[in-house]
Design a protein that fits this description.
The structure holds two protein chains of two kinds.
Chain A lengths: L1 H32 L3 H11 L3 H18 L1 H10 L1 H20 L6 H31 L28 H25 L2 H32 L4 H6 L5 H18 L3 H23 L2 E3 L9 E2 H4 L3 H28 L15
Antiparallel strand pairs in A: 1-2
Chain B lengths: L2 H15 L2 H34 L2 H35 L6 H30 L4 E3 L5 E3 L2 H5 L2 H31 L4 H37 L1 H8 L5 E2 L3 E8 L4 E8 L2 H7 L5 E2 L14 H30 L7 H9 L2 H18 L2 E3 L3 E2 L10 H32 L7 H9 L4 H4 L1
The chains are: A mainly alpha, B mainly alpha.
Chain lengths: 349, 434
């Protein structure tokens, strides 16, 4: 039963990355591709009604992780204390960047909030990638199941690692490039005119970068964390995942070059899901591997909550997800199609 | 949370009567709601994270129980609230009038559900139920329904929500009074004062009876030492007095300059003038709340302000009934100046609940000193504390600035249907379209 909850949390994280990923990506590129005020408004309008709902997946995934694996939540959140605080500040800045820019019609005001939105989106993408890198690489857990990592030590992958070393920074860059492409393809679907063309150009420019970084990061992972291959050799069906990664990259290129932006965006979604599934598959049954020795690793079994909690959880979680799916389908249908600036003003009212 | 039902009321009146002024009023308050919501979202996210970052030993101990309510808040309340807020704020032109009303209702429902799950979490910390201790020292859920239907949560929730509506109603009537006093947006000002004052009458009474009263009696049964500290009652005694004013002196165990009502505390807690009420000395000192004077003051500030709220709304309603409220400048001044006090009362109320529970983090199960993250050094905690201090200062300034600006601009003028038609017929030049 705990394994099912592990998958549920993984799915929720994946949905979060897919959905908030495109608005993070849109934020990361918007300073560069949206030049006039009108274009910037268009970017905001493309994500305005949905970004907050997208971010709720982070909270819902966090809450689910909390109740299903309390020790994992306690250990990882206190261990990643410093970067999480920075993530929180960035999330705060990003939200006010999106929501408060249109309150005052002044160049200086808007420029300031645009910059906040752009910079915080870029940094968040890097932080999330680095966080995933940390989980894959492992952290210096002690016998109580706790750890504390400084931001950096000697930038090497070893027992006394920091949050940032060459491997996790690489993961951060991969995440940034992935979300830049993801967000650009989303904007290519939602906008018209010059903005649309520039979004497409960004996607074209970063596609080869993404391919190179993907290959490089897969090799780096095997080099830095050799035991990631254990599950793959145990269950060779897992090799389908990297095949899916490569397949989705190829299809992304194919669809994008034929101006099928919707297909390219779907391919980007598949790519992200495949990368995350690959990581989860390599981790299993660990949830937070220890760099200090495998017997300290946090696993599904030693962090899960009691049976009653997990079984009632299935009931309300199921109901909650059906409801959430209905809301999201309704919301996205209501705002489907390309953005029209004439529909109401920028912060709703 | 307090503004959401008031917006639903305005939208309902608009839908029923077709009166455009109420739509304009709802639109105006939706702008204020939007600003509040953004600040609420960005300051709320850190709270969920904080369970893990700063209170990891508590989370390891209790996460299997309170993680349930927190996860349900995400799955049921946040999704509902955020998706329908997107529809409500961005979708008025894309949705039918009925659907737009429904979006407002769902935002209200979502924010109130979120309130329930959070209060249920806090209620479990005040009055743990439906759990068992397991071998590794932590607790596990044994009864989902006991957790969700914790009787403590019911009263705490009702009390908390009526406190929220008091804030919404007083802010609404204060803005209305401001418009009437400054002779602008007079029509809307009257709507704000009317809706605000009528809503306030209902909730200010509910705040005391039954919700506040019931909570006090629950305290007497489950946390008698908390009640004794709130009332600064040192000795267990029959016919205990109620202290209205006075300064507690913990060292000498007395109250300076006391104004008391004899036997009142016994009556309020046990409904009998001679009943015995437990004093602080009935329990060892290490189980006393750490800061008794602060607890005493926050509690008395809350109760004192609550009483003033009832008096103010009662007088305002009387004047409204006599049809002289909008002309009574003195009363409008009072309504205007009341707006900060519900915020103070609510903050004082939460401080009473949380300081009153000390030294416990989970009452009777885990002390606060055992719950924080031992791996996070004080230096790192200071780093994040100062960072949040700075961030919250910026947010507060932004919030006040933007809300003041919206109030300054006021509701959009209501355009009569004939005028709207004539405006629509004016051909627009490309510049105007932008």
């Amino acid at each position: 039963m705990a394994t099912i909850w592990f998958m549920i949390v993984a799915v929720m994280v994946a949905v979060y990355v897919l959905l908030d990923g495109f608005d993070l990506g849109a934020g990361a590129v918007h300073l560069f591709i949206a030049r006039t005020d009108e274009e910037r408004r268009m970017v905001i309008r493309a994500i305005g009604p949905v970004w907050d709902g997208n971010e709720v997946w982070l909270l819902a995934a966090g809450g689910t992780l909390y109740f299903a694996f309390p020790l994992l939540y306690a250990s990882s959140f206190s261990g990643f204390y410093l970067p999480l605080m920075m993530v929180l500040w960035l999330l705060m800045l990003r939200a006010i960047g999106i929501e408060f820019r249109a309150h005052i019609q002044e160049q200086v005001w808007k420029g300031f909030f645009d910059a906040i939105f752009g910079v915080s989106s870029i940094l968040l993408a890097i932080f999330f990638g680095a966080a995933l890198g940390n989980v894959v690489r492992g952290v210096p857990l002690n016998s109580d199941g706790y750890f504390f990592e400084p931001l950096w030590t000697n930038w090497r992958v070893g027992a006394q690692n920091g949050i940032l070393d060459w491997y996790t920074v690489l993961c951060g860059v991969v995440a940034l490039v992935t979300l830049v492409v993801h967000g650009s393809l989303y904007l290519a679907n939602k906008t018209r005119g010059e903005l649309n063309e520039r979004a497409r150009k960004v996607a074209s420019f970063f596609w080869p970068v993404q391919v190179l970084l993907t290959i490089f990061s897969l090799i780096a992972t095997v080099y830095a964390v050799p035991h990631v291959l254990e599950n793959y050799s145990k269950w060779p069906i897992g090799y389908l995942v990297p095949a899916l990664v490569i397949g989705s990259l190829i299809y992304m290129y194919y669809a994008h070059s034929r101006e099928q932006e919707r297909g390219a965006f779907v391919a980007s979604c598949v790519y992200i899901v495949a990368m995350l599934v690959g990581a989860a598959f390599a981790l299993y049954p660990n949830v937070l591997p220890a760099s200090t020795g495998t017997n300290f690793s946090l696993t599904i079994a030693n962090t899960a909550t009691g049976a009653h909690g997990m079984s009632v959880g299935f009931v309300w979680w199921g109901i909650g997800m059906v409801l959430a799916a209905v809301y999201f389908i309704f919301l996205y249908r209501m705002f489907r199609g390309r953005v029209r600036l004439e529909d109401g003003n920028d912060h709703g009212y | 949370m307090g503004l959401a039902p008031l917006i639903v009321i305005l939208k309902t009146i608009a839908l029923k009567t077709g009166d455009e002024r109420y739509d304009a009023a709802a639109r105006f308050w939706a702008k204020i709601f939007g600003i509040n919501f953004v600040i609420g979202v960005v300051t709320g996210i850190p709270m969920e994270f904080q369970f893990g970052t700063n209170w990891s030993h508590f989370s390891r101990f209790a996460g299997g129980v309170i993680g349930q309510t927190l996860a349900m808040e995400g799955c049921f309340a946040f999704f509902l609230e955020s998706t329908f807020l997107g529809l409500f704020l961005y979708g008025e032109k894309r949705l039918s009038k009925g659907m737009h009303w429904f979006s407002a209702l769902m935002v209200f429902l979502g924010s109130w559900m979120s309130g329930y799950f959070i209060v249920a979490t806090d209620a479990w910390m005040q009055h743990p139920v439906g759990y068992e201790r397991i071998a590794n020292g932590s607790v596990q859920l044994t009864s989902f329904w006991k957790l969700v239907l914790n009787p403590w949560a019911w009263w705490q929730y009702a009390h908390n929500m009526s406190g929220a509506v008091i804030t919404g109603a007083f802010v609404m009537s204060a803005v209305g009074a401001f418009y009437l006093l400054s002779q602008k947006h007079i029509e809307e000002g009257k709507i704000f004062v009317r809706v605000g004052v009528i809503a306030a009458l209902l909730v200010t009474v509910l705040q005391v009876v039954p919700t506040g009263d019931a909570q006090g009696r629950m305290l007497a049964r489950s946390q008698p030492v908390t009640l004794a500290a709130m009332e600064a009652l040192w000795e267990t005694q029959p016919g205990a007095p109620l202290v209205i004013l006075g300064q507690p002196d913990v060292t000498n165990q007395r109250i300076d300059n006391p104004v008391v009502v004899p036997k009142m505390l016994s009556f309020l807690t046990w409904r009998s003038w001679g009943a015995e009420v437990k004093g602080l000395n009935a329990v060892p000192k290490e189980d006393w709340p750490d800061n008794i004077p602060l607890l005493y003051y926050t509690y008395h500030i809350m109760v004192g302000l609550g009483t003033i709220f009832i008096a103010v709304t009662a007088v305002a309603c009387l004047l409204m009934w006599r049809k002289s409220l909008y002309q009574s400048r003195w009363m409008l001044w009072i309504l205007l100046l009341m707006f900060p006090f519900p915020y103070i009362a609510n903050t004082a109320g939460w401080m009473t609940a949380e300081i009153g529970r000390q030294p416990w983090l989970v009452y009777g199960l885990m002390r606060t000193v055992d719950g924080y993250s031992k791996m996070v050094s004080a230096g790192n905690a200071w780093f994040s504390f100062l960072g949040f201090l700075g961030m919250y200062t910026v947010l507060s300034v932004l919030f006040l600035f933007l809300v003041r600006r919206e109030i300054e601009q006021g509701p959009d003028p209501v355009v009569s249907p004939e005028l709207r038609k004539r405006i629509d017929e004016i051909p627009l030049s490309p510049v105007e379209v932008r």
